[in-house]
Amino acid sequence: MSDLPERPVNKHGWGYSRIDAEHPIGGEMSDILKGLFARLRLSSLEQHYARVPVLAIFSFINGCISIGIMSILALITSSPFIFPSLGPTAFLFFYTPRAPSASPRNTIIGHAIGVLAGYLSLVLTGLTAAGPALSVGMSWPRVIAAALSLGLTAGLMVLFKSPHPPAGATTLIVSLGILTKPPQLILLMIAVGLLTLQAIAINRLAGIPYPLWNPIKEDPNSP
């Protein structure tokens, strides 16, 4: 038995604390694993769902699957279905899936803001046809583009109440010239959508009350 106080629960039986107080290193992954083991009837594993090595193995396997699917699509289509900010988005989906920043709405709107802010910064600085900063080096227009894109992304995510931290990386991918062509940016958003669908499927399979769009509003005073 743990000496820590029990988490308050709502009418659905879910705790309001988004990090397991007894197993904080695992975030909410312990809840996901517990649900998956129960759904798959792996009774021999249920008692080990919160052990750190088990959580680490789950993170490894899920990370490989998440980005592996995108990599296969990129290989088959010869299109940029994979980009760096998908990694932190995937981690949010399965580490704190009930956090507002991990909801489908905030994920998709956040990345869309990042893409648009990044591309707008390229237009305003005349860099839409320039090579990536990693190849051609930094310049004053590129400095302005990077700063402007990140500032716009942060401000607009707050304005539209859709915070998603990985979108900050997405906008820099665009403003630094790594992905700049409109078809590439459309594929980038398709990849975000596919990863979001995976999050919905896995979290709901595990019995996590993961939202289909808006973040779930929880009232700790409700019965």
From TrEMBL:
HPP transmembrane region domain boundaries: 56-211
Keyword Membrane: yes
Protein name (Swiss-Prot/TrEMBL): HPP transmembrane region domain-containing protein
Keywords: Membrane, Transmembrane, Transmembrane helix
Transmembrane segments: 49-75, 108-134, 140-160, 185-206
Pfam families listed in its UniProt record: TM_HPP
